[in-house]
User: Which sequence fits this backbone?
């Protein structure tokens, strides 16, 4: 078995290149739209909804989520010798996907905000009850406030919560928690402008044009 640090680096690198498949960019090209020049300029599902409609947004959301789900499932079931620490490597893989999504090298490192990619990581790693709770909370917050960004910022805590609930006795608990918190930190960094608009009451609500 390779040293853990080597597997971590491989997981991050593989995740990054998977994450660089910027679904919204390619969906936009298929619809003759440069999503980076329309709306907020973000390549995620929310901007796809504003600029191209619900069908394009759904394709973007699913594509961005499953580019994390698929490699994590391959890691889990294709490399059984990684147990019992597969969750740690899977978190690094998911983190790489988020980084690739947020900073794709071929788009001058201008991508999305990583929420759908993080959602795919949650779907592939987290306990199903935690996942269902996260989905319910996100839908409830967006339905009540119509702020997608607010729902995203709350759901960004799912992986740390899942780690605390399920892995407190793990010998790598603090390592797991540290990586899980990087997902949360990344989401807050990418949503910094949204946070400032939320605080000033100028954040756009879902359904409003950019």
Assistant:
């Amino acid at each position: 078995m390779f040293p853990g640090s080597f597997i971590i680096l491989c997981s991050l690198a593989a995740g990054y290149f998977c994450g660089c498949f910027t679904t919204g960019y390619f969906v936009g090209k298929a619809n003759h739209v440069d999503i980076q020049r329309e709306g907020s300029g973000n390549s995620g599902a929310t901007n796809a909804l504003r600029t191209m409609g619900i069908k394009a947004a759904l394709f973007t959301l699913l594509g961005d989520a499953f580019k994390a789900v698929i490699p994590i499932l391959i890691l889990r079931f294709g490399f059984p010798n990684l147990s019992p620490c597969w969750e740690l490597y899977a978190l690094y893989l998911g983190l790489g996907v988020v980084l690739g999504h947020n900073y794709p090298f071929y788009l001058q490192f201008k991508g999305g905000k990583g929420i759908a990619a993080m959602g795919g990581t949650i779907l592939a790693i987290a306990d199903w009850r935690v996942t269902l709770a996260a989905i319910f909370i996100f839908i409830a917050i967006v339905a009540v406030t119509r702020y997608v960004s607010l729902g995203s910022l709350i759901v960004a805590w799912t992986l740390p919560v899942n780690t605390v609930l399920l892995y407190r006795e793990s010998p790598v608990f603090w390592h797991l928690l540290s990586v899980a918190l990087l997902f949360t930190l990344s989401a807050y960094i990418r949503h910094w402008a949204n946070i400032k608009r939320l605080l000033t009451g100028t954040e756009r609500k879902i359904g409003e044009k950019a």
In short: The chain has one domain: 4-200. The CA atoms of residues 17 and 26 lie 16 Å apart. The chain has a mean pLDDT of 91. Residues 4-200 form one domain.
